[in-house]
Design a protein that fits this description.
single chain; 514 residues; 19 helices
């Protein structure tokens, strides 16, 4: 299990690094303006359906069923089930894709109403969206095939294939000047081409594993009906999150040109700690909680839940302080090149700070939601999510005029805080969350250490301003990150949150075991 975890984690980390390179190229070649806005809307549309029908709800319903059929009825029956499921998915998604291509102008009137005020941006967005929309068919099918490979314990190709999105995207952007009318068109074609490559690699890997998956004409067998029934709650839950993102996009298109781009690049940085900490906490916590609750070990389940809260806040709070203090240099160093000017980077840094304020809440949602799922309650988080979606829309409408590109990120952060508060209250009322006073005091000391880190880092960056030249700026930013870590570690030791002798002893003991 550890080897598989490290395999998936290694490919994921490499994918994130390549994704950062791809985003840097997008910023350098297209900057923050109407072209970048049009491309980001064109990419967000198929990506929304991918998360709805591919990676999220479908995988959560398909993987357990596939594994169950594999164990009970054998590999051939499991392959038959996967082929039928692939056939159902392809027919549905191709139908959806054809409708999208035909009615794309009407769709963009809904999700990008602000583009109507500038005909060029609207026309470009329609053109680019028609290029990228087939990606949803390809990537959703690829998600199913990857799930099959994971069920067969072929983790490497299932994880490595997703690198193709960034690799093909980088090649398309670099080759855009020679083969396409614009970099935006090149990047859009790169999205669809990457879907072809990913699906091809995964199908080839299945064939090599002697588990070929030619799709079957869809038939609603009892297993397929069960799959669809299990998908529905996850589809609703995933849909709430995607609607929130769509609301942010709609509001962004109503703001000055470039606002969508500024928020996109800020969100990409915010997603680094959120993706690592939130996904890790949510993925690992659910099976542990389920096991303890099934055994009637409620006190142990509470302890596990509290330990997860401790861990994520211990790691998330310093990330918040670092992003708040170093947002400007982070965005300048990573994206302030080419067409994406330093002024664009500073404006994007304002959005990043607004996102960073809600980072602990975004992560805690992923820690608290498994407490409902482990108890068989899949409805309450959805109900809370729908309420938060409405609140997010209200906050967006209130903040969009006075704060422009900072409004939607701040609205999302405030809505996430309310989401966490509602989940915590509901869990406490049902005796599913019990936070002792000692833990609250410890978290208070962690917060003090974080504040100390932020103040120290602000003073250091003021005393030693960021120099000129890319190499010196990279070295300066790296030094500030290390200095912030030292400030935080010193604060934890001084406030007796961390015992260095005990921590070193535990580390040495673990290393000796290995």
């Amino acid at each position: 299990m550890l080897r598989n975890f490290l395999t998936v984690g290694g490919w994921t980390m490499l994918s994130r690094i390549l994704g950062l390179v791809r985003d840097q190229l997008l910023a350098a070649y297209m900057g923050a303006g109407l072209v970048q806005d049009a491309y980001q809307v064109a990419f967000r549309l198929p990506n929304m359906f991918r998360r709805l029908f591919g990676e999220g709800a479908f995988n959560a319903a398909f993987v357990p069923l596939f594994s169950e059929v594999m164990v009970r009825d054998g590999a051939e029956e499991a392959r038959l089930f996967a082929r039928r499921a692939l056939g159902v998915m392809l027919v549905w998604l191709i139908f959806l894709c054809v409708l999208g291509e035909i009615f794309m102008p009407q769709i963009l009137r809904v999700i990008a109403p602000g583009f109507l005020h500038g005909g060029e941006r609207y026309d470009l967005a329609v053109s680019l969206s028609r290029i990228t929309f087939p990606y949803l068919v390809l990537i959703c099918a690829a998600a199913l095939v990857a799930a099959v490979l994971n069920g067969l314990h072929y983790f490497s190709m299932a994880s490595a294939a997703y690198l193709a999105f960034n690799v093909v995207g980088i090649i398309a952007i670099l080759a855009g000047a020679w083969f396409f009318p614009s970099v935006a068109h090149a990047a859009a074609w790169g999205v669809t081409a990457s879907g072809v490559v990913q699906l091809g690699l995964l199908l080839w890997s299945c064939s090599r594993a002697k588990f070929a998956l030619p799709p079957l004409w869809p038939v609603l067998t009892p297993r397929i009906r069960l799959l669809l029934r299990r998908m529905l709650p996850g589809l609703v839950g995933s849909g709430v999150g995607q609607i929130n993102l769509t609301i942010d996009t709609i509001i962004g298109t109503l703001l000055p040109a470039g606002s969508v781009s500024l928020m996109y690049f800020a969100d990409r940085i915010n997603q680094l700690p959120l993706g690592v900490l939130g996904a890790a906490a949510g993925t690992t916590l659910l099976p542990v909680l389920t096991r303890h609750l099934a055994a009637g070990e409620h006190d142990v389940a509470h302890a596990v839940q509290n330990r997860s809260i401790n861990y994520v806040l211990l790691l998330t709070l310093p990330a918040v302080a670092g992003l708040l203090v170093l947002a400007d240099p982070i965005m300048i160093v990573l994206f302030g090149h080419g067409s994406f000017t330093e002024q664009d980077a500073i404006l994007s840094a304002q959005s990043l700070r607004a996102y960073a304020l809600g980072l602990p809440a975004f992560v805690l949602v992923k820690v608290l939601a498994p407490a409902f799922f482990a108890r068989g309650d899949t409805r309450t988080p959805v109900y809370v999510g729908v309420s938060v979606m409405v609140i997010n829309l209200i906050f967006n409408l209130i903040l969009m005029k006075p704060l422009a590109h900072v409004g939607p990120p701040l609205a999302s952060s405030l809505a996430a805080m309310l989401n966490v508060g509602a989940l915590a209250v509901l869990l406490s009322r049902n005796a599913a969350l019990s936070v002792p006073a000692s833990m609250m005091l410890r978290l208070g000391r962690v917060l003090l250490a974080t504040i100390g880190m932020g103040v120290g880092l602000a003073c250091a960056s003021y005393a030693v301003p960021m120099p000129g030249g890319l190499v010196w700026r990279v070295l300066w930013l790296g030094g500030m990150v290390w200095l912030g870590g030292l400030f935080y570690l010193a604060g934890l030791v001084a406030l007796r949150v961390l015992d260095p002798v005990q921590a070193f002893g535990a580390l040495r003991k673990r290393m000796s075991r290995r």
